[in-house]
Amino acid sequence: MTSTIERPGLQITGVCKAYGGLQVLSDVTLRAPAGAITAVIGPNGAGKSTLANVISGFVTQDRGEVVVNGVRLPPGKAVTRAEHRLGRTFQNLEIFTGMTVLQNVAMGAYSRQRGSHLGDLVRGPRARRDEIEVKEAALALLRRFRLEHRADSLVESLPFGEAKLVEMVRVLAMEPEVVVLDEPAAGLPPASALPLAETIAGLAEDGIGVLLIEHNMKLVMSISQHVVVLDQGQVLTEGSPAEVQQDPRVIEAYLGPGATTSEELTL
């Protein structure tokens, strides 16, 4: 595996985005280095979802750059993100209904096939070999995340927590070097928090740069190496989880003017 020093991960520089007269993002700059978990937190309306959409190419920024491992990504070109080894999960569950768990995960692997269209996978010896490799890789991922017993199940038949895990595994099938996780804990029962934390921590251990956008403060503080706080579209502060949690500006942003303790701080 290439060292994390050679793969700097994700770099966002001076990103701005406005809708009409509303400035949603203003000069946002942050890093999500390889092999680490960088969290982005902030009150509702801080611009977190817009930032995720800019990074993943679903929204075109007005100014600024999104760079992955030294390569500037073209603004507003979501289809090119897989080519540059950037994956993303969504706040709302995004799965291919009517397909099995194995087929869902394989779709991630198909997206990184060299210059192939899905239709090419059923023609010729090379295409058949590619199809076998894709299925084997998908099954290996399902075994890693203890989902192999669900391989032939329709994905919509799964409990919500397992379905969200399938979405994450599908992104990993793309073999990304950077992943953006948009509120992975949203809608999950408290009992799922620990397995989720272990899964996300495992991504960083594999050398992936993780940008975690999350409302669950306990999850953020337990696994992140660096935390960036957005407020009204700007970076309010950043630092270690302990530094951010005790920052008076962060406490005020969440709890209102005059608040002095972070004990009730929940995102």
UniProtKB/TrEMBL annotation:
Residues 10-257 form the ABC transporter domain. One of its GO terms (biological process) is D-alanine transmembrane transport. PROSITE patterns: ABC_TRANSPORTER_2. One of its GO terms (cellular component) is plasma membrane. Keywords: ATP-binding, Nucleotide-binding, Transport. GO terms for molecular function: ATP binding; ATP hydrolysis activity; L-isoleucine transmembrane transporter activity; L-phenylalanine transmembrane transporter activity; L-valine transmembrane transporter activity. Gene3D superfamilies: P-loop containing nucleotide triphosphate hydrolases. It comes from the Bacteria. InterPro entries: AAA+_ATPase, ABC_AA/LPS_Transport, ABC_transporter-like_ATP-bd, BCA_ABC_TP_C, P-loop_NTPase. The keyword ATP-binding applies. PANTHER family: AMINO ACID ABC TRANSPORTER ATP-BINDING PROTEIN (PTHR45772:SF7), CONSERVED COMPONENT OF ABC TRANSPORTER FOR NATURAL AMINO ACIDS-RELATED (PTHR45772). This is ABC-type branched-subunit amino acid transport system ATPase component. It comes from Nocardioides soli.
